[in-house]
């Protein structure tokens, strides 16, 4: 019975111990590593912002009713051919 309680305690405590170990690794990050990570994220966010600005506006992407009907027919045809 004691063995069962001991095993159960170990199994239930394992996730908590693993989390504690992971937190320790994150806190050991050097100041240079943190700064490098900040710079990388800043560059990534800037690039994403530029991409968003370079995309055409929603108004430019609106379709005429004829284009919408053609697209709908094309999709229906493609779906029919997939079912066969």
At a glance:
The protein is an all-alpha fold and 84 residues long. It has helices spanning 2-27, 31-54, 58-61, 65-83. The mean pLDDT is 81.
Q: Top keywords for this entry?
A:
mainly alpha
Could you characterize the architecture of this molecule?
The protein is 87% helix and 0% strand. It contains four helices and no strands. It starts with a helix and ends with a helix.
Helix content: over 70%
The chain-level structural class is mainly alpha
Q: Could you tell me the number of beta strands?
A: 0
Helices, by number, come to 4
Describe the biggest sheet?
none
Low-confidence parts: none
The outline comes out as flat
Q: Give helix and strand order, one letter per element, not per position.
A: HHHH
Radius of gyration: 28 Å
Mean pLDDT score, rounded? 81
Question: What share of the residues does DSSP label as strand, in percent?
Answer: under 5%
Between the first and last Cα atoms, what is the distance in angstroms? 63 Å
Write the layout of secondary structure elements.
Blueprint: H1 2-27, H2 31-54, H3 58-61, H4 65-83
């Amino acid at each position: 019975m004691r063995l069962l309680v001991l095993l159960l305690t170990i199994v239930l405590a394992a996730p908590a111990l693993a989390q504690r170990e992971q937190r320790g690794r994150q806190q050991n990050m050097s100041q240079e590593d943190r700064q490098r990570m900040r710079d990388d994220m800043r560059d990534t966010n800037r690039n994403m912002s530029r991409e968003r600005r370079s995309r055409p506006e929603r108004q430019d992407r609106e379709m005429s009713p004829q284009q919408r009907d053609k697209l709908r027919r094309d999709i229906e045809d493609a779906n029919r051919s997939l079912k066969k």
